[in-house]
Specification:
This protein is mainly alpha-helical. The chain has 2 domains: about 5-120, no CATH class; about 120-150, no CATH class. The protein is built from 9 helices and no strands. It is globular, with a radius of gyration of 17 Å. The protein starts with a helix and ends with a helix. The structure holds zinc ion (ZN). The site of zinc ion has 4 residues, from helix 5.
Length: about 150
């Protein structure tokens, strides 16, 4: 596997891979539980669903949404052994060792980090000025404020 940044840049040039983004809900979740927890989840998913020599349901084991890790797996072509072989020449039919798993998790986390700092995908972000003039909805920020108080 190339360096993480090289891999991410290459993925960004794929119309399909670059069409995946964390939803606002995913981003709120990452903020709430923290990157360490998300990394642990990613490591678990990769170990159980991608690393075995013959992962159960291979090719369809990664849902399109439901956890930031799943979105990251599709965006990073780490969703199944077919995509992994095509993008990173990791041979199918052989279990992924610890180091390979760690590289994948590092890539997924780098993707998630990038997604966490990009501007919101909402309409408000696209024409923010107009929304402000009209005194548009402000409830959105209120929701985030509440969550900040509940750190586990
Ligand atoms: Zn795949």
């Amino acid at each position: 596997m190339a360096s993480i940044n090289e891999a991410l840049d290459r993925l960004e040039r794929s119309a399909f891979r670059s069409s995946f983004h964390l939803s606002e809900c995913d981003r709120a979740y990452v903020k709430r539980v923290g990157m360490d927890t998300v990394r642990r989840h990613c490591a678990d998913f990769i170990r159980t669903r991608l690393a075995p020599a013959e992962p159960p349901n291979d090719g369809r084991q990664t849902p399109m949404r439901g956890h930031p890790c799943f979105v990251a797996q599709h965006a990073c072509a780490c969703c199944c052994r077919g995509c992994l072989e095509k993008w990173y020449r990791v041979k199918k039919g052989r279990a992924l060792d610890e180091e390979q798993q760690k590289k994948i998790v590092d890539l997924l986390m780098a993707y998630i980090e990038r997604e966490m700092v990009r501007p919101a995908l909402s309409k408000k972000a696209k024409n923010g000025e107009k929304a402000e003039e009209k005194g548009g909805k402000r409830n959105v920020s209120g929701a985030t404020e509440k969550k900040q108080g509940v750190k586990p």
